[in-house]
Design brief:
By secondary structure, the chain is mainly beta. It has strands spanning about 1-5, 10, 15-25, 35-40, 45-50, 60, 70-75, 80-85, 90-100, 115.
Length: about 120
């Protein structure tokens, strides 16, 4: 499986970004719970948000609840993360993978996309 994240960048506090993740490599995207994770410098990778395989349920880390929205388009093998009211502490490399509800991740990870929140 190949996961390619995009959409990151430099944004001011309070700004918004939309991240995308395209899955390929023979994966049947629509049967997997998917999630976003992030890793800040010097910190462990952490869970951000997850979405059920059919989009019927979502889950968020407390730190992003009410500001981030996860969604998916199974026809396009694409996962999204709409981020609003961004804060400096959201600065990290963002990754997508299988996850949420004790779902194990794929062994391979993409390169991630850098999000930097700074004035």
């Amino acid at each position: 499986v190949q996961l390619v994240e995009s959409g990151g960048g430099l944004v001011q506090p309070g700004g918004s970004l939309r991240l995308s993740c395209v899955a390929s490599g023979g994966i049947t995207f629509g049967i997997h719970n998917m999630a976003w994770f992030r890793q800040a410098p010097g910190k462990e990778r952490e869970f951000v948000a997850a979405i059920f395989w059919n989009g019927g349920s979502t889950s968020y880390a407390d730190s992003v609840k009410g500001r981030f929205t996860i969604s998916r388009d199974n026809a396009r093998n694409t996962l999204y993360l709409q981020m609003s009211n961004l804060k400096a502490e959201d600065t990290a490399v963002y990754y997508c993978n299988r996850g949420g509800w004790d779902t194990s991740s794929f062994a391979s990870w993409g390169q991630g996309t850098q999000v930097t929140v700074s004035s």
